[in-house]
Amino acid sequence: MSKRLVAPSILSADFNRLGEDIEMINQSDADYIHCDVMDGVFVPNISFGIPIIQHVKKVATKPLDVHLMIVNPDQYIETFKAAGASILTVHYEACTHLHRTIGNIKANGMKASVCLNPHTPVHLLEDIIGDLDMVLLMSVNPGFGGQKFIENTYDKVRKLKKMIEAKNPDCLIEVDGGVNFETGKKLIEAGVDVLVAGSFVFGSDDPIDTIGKLKLV
């Protein structure tokens, strides 16, 4: 049974009034606050880094779900813990020694998550899945918000769900990219636990209502 959790992505928030947008998420039924950190090297965009996470943490009452789209994430694990991350996601494609990276995230008191890009098959996680708290599947190519959903994601979720049920039933599946009511419903049916939504939430007339409805898809 999927958990039906929602993590609004502040990449789509209005940074002129970021504090107000975080307060909105606090008041909503959201479960996490999703923070996309991009370095312009691993992905072709630069978003925000440590200072923004620190400021978000001062206002947030929900756990910070921090997604590192950066090269060499190992050198920043302690820094993101100090900044306020509760869940830290690193990319499979960016980690040469993934087992060591996951161990370090957990040793720093955070939940450990691994992200796969759209082209990366889920079977590559077979030997690490037992150590993970969450797997994040990108359903768009990472780097920019508002992209079209990649349909192959549903099959990927089903394959990952089978692996998780066999090896680590407590591990959550999170999906980010192109999430709306229609795709969200299909993703939950396929086995997703956490829906990340950015432009769909922040571009709506009533973000709190949209978050609430996403939890019911």
UniProtKB/TrEMBL annotation:
Protein name, as recorded: Ribulose-phosphate 3-epimerase
Required co-factors: Fe(2+); a divalent metal cation; Mn(2+); Zn(2+)
SUPFAM superfamilies assigned to the protein according to its UniProt record, in alphabetical order: Ribulose-phoshate binding barrel
UniProt cross-references to HAMAP family, sorted A to Z: RPE
EC number(s) from the headed UniProt entry: 5.1.3.1
NCBIfam families the record matches: PRK05581.1-4 (NF004076), rpe (TIGR01163)
Residues making up the signal peptide according to the UniProt record: none
Family according to the record: Belongs to the ribulose-phosphate 3-epimerase family.
Active site, per annotation: D36 (proton acceptor), D176 (proton donor)
Alphabetical list of InterPro entries matching this protein: Aldolase_TIM, Ribul_P_3_epim, Ribul_P_3_epim-like, RibuloseP-bd_barrel
Chain sites annotated for binding substrate: S9, H67, G143, F144, G145, G146, D176, G177, G178, G198, S199
Known role: Catalyzes the reversible epimerization of D-ribulose 5-phosphate to D-xylulose 5-phosphate.
Pathway annotation: Carbohydrate degradation
Native source species: Mangrovibacterium diazotrophicum
Pfam families reported for this sequence: Ribul_P_3_epim
Gene Ontology CC annotations of this record: cytoplasm
Record text on cofactor binding: Binds 1 divalent metal cation per subunit.
GO BP annotations, alphabetical order: pentose catabolic process; pentose-phosphate shunt
Lineage: Bacteria, Pseudomonadati, Bacteroidota, Bacteroidia, Marinilabiliales
